[in-house]
Amino acid sequence: MVTTPRYAVAIIGGATAGAEIAARLAEHGVEVTVFEQNPRPYGKIQDGLPRWHSALRRKEYETIAKKLGQPAVHFVPNTKIGADIDFAELANDWGFTGVVLATGAWHDRPLPVEGADDYIGRGLVYQNPFIIWFNHANEAGYDGPSFEPVDGALVVGGGLASIDVAKALMLENTRIALAKRGIEVDVVELEVKGIPKTLAAHDLSASDLGLEGCTLCYRRRAEDMPVVEVPEGASEERRAKIIAARGRLLGKAMEKYGFEFEPLAAPEGLIVEDGQLVGLRFRRTRIENGRVVATDETFERRGRCVYSSIGSIPEPMPGIPMKGELYDFVDWDLGRLADYPNVFSVGNIVTGKGNIVASRKHARAVAVEVIERFLGLGDGGHEGEEALLDGAGDGAAAAADAIAAQLQRQPPIDAGALESIHKRVQQRQAAVGYSGDFTAWLAKVTPPDMQ
Question: Could you tell me the domains of the chain?
Fold first, then answer.
């Protein structure tokens, strides 16, 4: 009877991709240790997917917890590799057969205007911290960054995440305006019913609230928005239908949530008054053969705040070389690094994209109808959006198989090396107050009012 696993792997990041890889490697007989920077291993599902996706979030919470709760998976919470534990030390000295990076994409891509970041907190807000606040602000114990949703704002973006930001602004400002009239409405209920229907139920119109609303500014056109991807090898007829569907989806979202859209607008300069960012100067663009081409026209748009939602990229990690905005991989299929032959990478850390839909694309193209439900535009609200998760494990399963094949080229781990790993893991678990009981830990660190 074999009592010692042949291989031991560390996974950095315990959310969707990390949990899937952990479960799959465990099935291969690999002992897995998952290092998670947060108390809970839910990643973008918890902090990046707006709280109106309640059913989708609950389902993914349960899936992740089931995968990480296996006996062959050891969980180490509240541990950021590169800060609490040196990455090179983990990869080279702890004794693991391999290390898998599954940390996702958490760093906002900078607004491409010189000097813009000087105004963070003074008129410039980035998507990731804003949505984290939106998701957790109602929790009694929330102590993260705080934001005030600003009416009359500009949202710079173009993907699903930027629509989420625009929706969050419109919903919060509508809720606040209604509360001032003595009408209490829950944001999630408001998102499902839509703003016009909710106002009509109270014999009100948008103009009655005195709100300016926000404007989503995009350097391309509505039909170019990557809200629905064109599958590889699609026919011209299929391609045309998807492109037309993009415009329809955006139009429905604008109608239901009340935001405006400014296409063909690339931010180029800042409008600053009294040390506060109050708008942007844009360069008008045009699309030629699928490319964005700058024109000679410029124009200004004022906004009481600018919300940047132009994408998420991996956070730099000390010890890992970067090439531009991404890690400097020498093998993009397995996310290999030149200086660390035992390190692999999976999920959005490789793609450089930070939303749940992008993370699912490796499985299969997502249908227009599912994206419509994801945006809350279907007749049943978000009912059926869980189809986004269908086949989500296919890509991770393939990655796990490929990683397992690479591990089999390494000598099996001996009992002494495994015991050394166990001691170091247990020391870190003790340092963060984790007893080793995954279910009990989740019960302890999950706020009772978490949505």
Answer: 8-106+313-445 (3.40.50.720), 110-310 (3.50.50.60)
